[in-house]
Amino acid sequence: xxxxxxxxxxxxxxxxxxxxxxxxxxxxxxxxxxxxxxxxxxxxxxxxxxxxxxxxxxxxxxxxxxxxxxxxxxxxxxxxxxxxxxxxxxxxxxxxxxxxxxxxxxxxxxxxxxxxxxxxxxxxxxxxxxxxxxxxxxxxxxxxxxxxxxxxxxxxxxxxxxxxxxxxxxxxxxxxxxxxxxxxxxxxxxxxxxxxxxxxxxxxxxxxxxxxxxxxxxxxxxxxxxxxxxxxxxxxxxxxxxxxxxxxxxxxxxxxxxxxxxxxxxxxxxxxxxxxxxxxxxxxxxxxxxxxxxxxxxxxxxxxxxxxxxxxxxxxxxxxxxxxxxxxxxxxxxxxxxxxxxxxxxxxxxxxxxxxxxxxxxxxxxxxxxxxxxxxxxxxxxxxxxxxxxxxxxxxxxxxxxxxxxxxxxxxxxxxxxxxxxxxxxxxxxxxxxxxxxxxxxxxxxxxxxxxxxxxxxxxxxxxxxxxxxxxxxxxxxxxxxxxxxxxxxxxxxxxxxxxxxxxxxxxxxxxxxxxxxxxxxxxxxxxxxxxxxxxxxxxxxxxxxxxxxxxxxxxxxxxxxxxxxxxxxxxxxxxxxxxxxxxxxxxxxxxxxxxxxxxxxxxxxxxxxxxxxxxxxxxxxxxxxxxxxxxxxxxxxxxxxxxxxxxxxxxxxxxxxxxxxxxxxxxxxxxxxxxxxxxxxx
Length: 683
What we know:
The protein is α+β, with helices and mostly antiparallel strands. The protein folds into 6 domains: 4-94, GIY-YIG endonuclease (3-Layer(aba) Sandwich), CATH 3.40.1440; 103-204, no CATH class; 207-246; 257-371, 2-Layer Sandwich (Nucleotidyltransferase, domain 5), CATH 3.30.420; 396-588, UvrC, RNAse H endonuclease domain (Nucleotidyltransferase, domain 5, 2-Layer Sandwich); 593-679, DNA polymerase, domain 1 (Orthogonal Bundle). Helix content is 41%, strand content 17%. The protein is flat. One of its GO terms (cellular component) is excinuclease repair complex. Residues 208-243 form the UVR domain.
């Protein structure tokens, strides 16, 4: 733990103006981002007596090793910069959001010539109208199915639309009256676009006038004795009313508003949002927040607003936002929302009437979400904490290993040797930081040498990044790790750690686990020692007896079979094994599906299959003369010469594959089940 006085800037160095500040740890990672109306006054609060700080704030300032700031003109600019930096750096001491789903929206692509109604997730696109979010995609499809009877807007994909236009025949929806079939010209592009806009108007809440118009048309048709048309209009009105019933009226004045409620305890908070459009609840979403920083309800509301509207298009911000507590100060947040929307936004606490009653409903949902989350997570969190403590105790570590990296070697009888690296943080897999390696310094099977190479390559990157950030004075030997495609990954050659970005290869673990026993552990420890790294613990987990091996120890550490620590190590090891096997299989499959014929220019798939079918195997094709090859239909003399030359220079052991059946054709011409048999021999 660092002493904050060691990096505390002098008061005169800090400007007395709005800005955003960043705390970094000893590795240069951004661990906290904050904004301030006065940087000098705000930063002074962090460098007071540690006993007077909130426990979370005290942990943050003692973890940090430096602080820096950026001056901006206004508090609104500070709010915007703070949000962008939190999204970019993912600081560990800022409020963490855990949204457990990607919420679907009902989208209408008004930016296309023939607009399409569909379900969309993710980032918003320009020129697309969105309605929602909905809790489930099926709820959108039910609503759309009812409304297509009245608004037969296109719902098909671009491929289906193009195909129907080519053959001059619409799809099934066009035949049953749930699509106006613009693909075959039943409706013009202008009329179809107008139909899509009417669909959007109805979804936006302008329903009363439209239904009244349909009712008048139904009555007129009945008076004119056009009973079939009147019946159709009656059914259309019924379908629209059923669609409207799916979102009950909650605010009589057709208000567009978002209601945000928070339920919290000392460690976590649940945020719930109701989206009300046209007086109806059109969607609901929520997430759970880790209170890793000392934050009030008002602060949680401000973070929720940033999370909710930071990446939304302006039309997603409603006229009114109702919250349980106002951010302090509220003016910059209101101005930011107004800029996002393009017009004034009312941010306030509901005091009476229907809006206060609806806010109570949202709060009950937030409380239930928090209770449900704590019920699900309590045992899991407790178990993970106990597992990490058991591992630290068994291995004699000074602190629990919050980051664990595990390495495994995979091959098939010495061929296609690869390695995997998986990462677990706080006992959970961090798949975004997994890595794969090809063994490049030697051929054949040698798990010990392979482990030494992989560990060395991984931690050379760490040293290179430390050198770029000025923390290392020697130039480490070797090159950056190469990924599975043979090209250095996006981290190579770029000082990304200097930028504090969260996704980096060089972030060091507290514990390295290798799949194997004493030899593999010794190889890993030797690789670290050669690089001068002595602050990373190493252990191995031998699969035979699930023994934990430590460097330079003659006897293994035996954890009880019921130990949560052993179970966590097994999960880490098995995940590394799975990841390595999947990579090794993909490489082997590519190799087995290759053939010397693939390199022959102008020889397509059909003629390759014709050659194999005619001769029965590559062995017989290789032995054939040019005249015999020319006897195959479609093979001229020039192509035959190219085939003969390619086979003469190819290794005779390379198998061919019948792409129609997926079977491997051996040199004797007999299809083989080798691929499936080999899968059972994977290491």
